[in-house]
Amino acid sequence: MCQSEAVNLLKNNDNQEDREPETRIITLNYGENLERSVFHFQKGWTVRFVRGASLLGRHVDVFTSISGKISWKEGADEFATFAEIKCEQSGAFSYQFVVDNESKPAGNGYILVMPVLLLNEYPLRLNAVACITHISKLLGPLDMWKERLKVAAKAEYNMIHFTPVQELGISNSSYCIADPMQLNPNFSTTEKRYTYDDLATLIKDLEKDFHLLSLQDVVWNHAARNALWLLEHPQCAYNLKNSPHLRPAYILDRLLYHFGIDVINGKYQNRNLNKEINTEEHLKIP
Fold first, then answer.
1. In this structure, how many other beta carbons lie within 10 angstroms of the beta carbon of residue 99?
2. Residue limits of the Glycogen debranching enzyme glucanotransferase domain (predicted)?
3. Distance between CA atoms of 167 and 177, rounded to whole angstroms?
């Protein structure tokens, strides 16, 4: 029995996600920045914010990246007043609070809502995930992926991490995206052009047939230099116009580039700088 099948046999009461929803309290204190702390919650749980001693008698507005500004629910007195949200979506979220309409937040922190993973409709504990990375651009045509990924299941992995599957840029770097809306054309063949719909079908088959879940990087900040949208909107990236402090580095980079071209063309062969480096002598500086 492979590991994923064993995990599928977990009883519901053994699974943390099946516990009764809980309410966890975060106490807000003036000037308390908890950027290095993370509060963990399960989906369905409730986050309740209450005022600490330093905020009693003051006007406090609480904001989260989950639902924006949160309204306070009045209690019998100020000690019973609270603001709360329900964790209905997994992911990492932030919160901050402003006191007496000040211009800067008086404190902040982070909330991590743990995902609920289902493998063929059975719960999969996060600490039971056995993941292996595959470089997508090296897997070949999409119609060959299933057979090539079968070995991951035989090795008792239950999740595959794919590097980006989008169309890559001129450098062919695995994380340099030319068009995020298009599947890498190298996955297609002369007979068929594959799309995201075909990839979705494959992902479902991997789970159904091999008990393999899938995970893929999402790249927001690495666009290829030949990306059409970047050519149309150059202001979205660093360049010598909007970032003049980069000009000295650019000049040095171009000098090194042309120096390398000159070495290839043999202009420095009399200085023991050959086109090819294949002996230890070539590494010695005259």
1. 19
2. 124-284
3. 6
Q: Assess contact for 172 and 164: CB atoms under 8 A.
A: no
Residue 166 has pLDDT above 60, yes or no: yes
Give residues with Cβ within 8 angstroms of 246, minimum separation 6. Answer: 238, 239, 240
Residue 93 · residue 53 · CB < 8 Å: no
207: tokens are 């789970």
Task: For 188-217, write each residue's pLDDT tens digit.
Answer: 999 999 999 999 999 999 999 999 999 998
Round to whole Å and give the CA distance between 154 and 212.
11
Q: In what order do the strands lie in the sheet with 107-114?
A: 33-42, 107-114, 91-99, 60-64, 68-70
Please report the domains of the chain, with CATH numbers, ordered by start residue: 12-115 (2.60.40.420), 130-216 (3.30.750), 244-283 (no CATH)
In 3D space, the residue among 154, 133, 270 whose CA is nearest the CA of residue 209 turns out to be: 154
